[in-house]
Amino acid sequence: MSLTQFLFWFLSALGLFSAIMVVISKNPVHSVLWLIIVFFTISGHYILLNAQFLAIVNLIVYAGAIMVLFLFVIMLMNLNAETEPQKNKWLKIAGVIGGGALLLVLVAALKDADSRNQMAQMGTGDIGLIHNLGIALFREYVIPFEISSILFLSAMVGAVVIGKKE
Amino acid sequence: MVLVAIIIGISLFVAMYETYAERKVAAFIQDRHGPNRAGPFGIFQPLADGLKLFSKEEIVPNHSNKFLFILGPGLAMLTAMMTSAVVPWGGHIHAFGRDISLQIADVNIGILYIFGVVSMGVYGVMIGGWASNNKFSLLAAIRGASQIISYELAMGLSLIALLMMTGTLSMHDIVQQQMDGRYYALYQPLGFLIFLICAFAECNRTPFDLSEAESELNFGYHQEYSSMKLGFYLFAEYVNMFISSAVMATIFWGGYDIPFVNDASFGLNHGANLLAILQVLSLFVKIGIFVFFFMWVRWTVPRFRYDQLMKLGWKTLIPLAILNMVVTGFVILLRQNHWHF
Predict the structure, then answer these.
(1) Predicted pLDDT of residue A92
(2) Do residues A12 and A27 both lie within one domain?
(3) A60 interface with B at CB cutoff 8 Å
(4) Which of A152, B3, B52, B339 has the highest CB neighbour number within 10 Å of its CB?
(5) CA dist B296 to A166, B26, B291, B305, Å?
(6) Do B109 and A52 touch (CB under 8 A)?
């Protein structure tokens, strides 16, 4: 087993384990910390695919900013197992069914996808390097890129409007 | 591998003597003597301090989360040390029959890597503060987190203007571009100023040391810590100061370039090894100036109030950084058009 393969299996196992721990941790702060480890493993996979830029941006944006805000809010509200409201039993069952249905849809969608037969290009692909990614984004995909930035802008305006409302 | 060990060793050594320098600078500014008992001029004071911290009793509070409580200072130290990997400390040294580069990793996303590690740095403070199970620690941790997130934005925006000029994210290439003495701080004075202020905030230095404001929070996020775990937190601050000085010197002040000297021809005349050593010295002189500046400001400017801090970050620095970015982009475009509209 080569080093790359070993890293792949290690990161995958750690990622799945942490993802499960996010769900089953009793303490919300622990959940967030496990989620941060999940983001680290995803970044590790990006690096294995030679997409350094995506890896580091994933860390900066998700692990470095969004998760800090999650942690911030959870610590500020001081949530813990005792103050957690007891959820309805039916709500839990509905959640399980909803999650299962999503899994079914994802599996069905991926089953016939073209990429199923393609091996991931370990460490050789170069679309994830910043230079190529920038050219692809600003030449071929410039309209979707700009539209998504407008989406962010509108989300920001929405957040300000909600925040202003007393 | 050897280089990694050497650089970590040097970072720790520098951080150790930064504590000494800080006390001496404070003493100088306040017209006192400062530490002068351990050794000549008190130069063994950091060793004595370290010994004291190591031999103190280790106390873990009863109601704290033990694992996270210990993880906190370790994380703070780890993130402080990791940044040094992409800083180019000098040119090449020719030894044992081959060229050895004085940079651990020349990755093509060097600046983003630093940014990523810096954004991780907040977890040491947050986890430690929360795991202490102490209201003051928690308040300090939350303050620290919101401060670092706010100033990270302005820092990133001020860097974008610089990156438009460099066209690369590699620290090594950025230094090479400044080799002719035209440092980026001269082209980007506003960007440099914003970056400097944000570096103060990211290092939790006065006037931004809201997360350890003694007068309101007792001792801030490391109130429950004792012994070397406290030492790690305090030490991480000094390592951070050293590394952020190194980053500022590298991307804005030419890194290991020797000022007023043509490095390439000097290397041809006097040999590459002498050049490399002088380059490292030059970088360390620049770092030393920045570290002194950090201390100077600490003993001169009083601490901000929390609302002033947020106002400065969000209402002054970010708009200025965006303005700087727009103007830089405009000028670059104009230059590509040979100064025609």
Answers:
(1) 84
(2) yes
(3) yes
(4) B3
(5) 44, 8, 9, 20
(6) yes
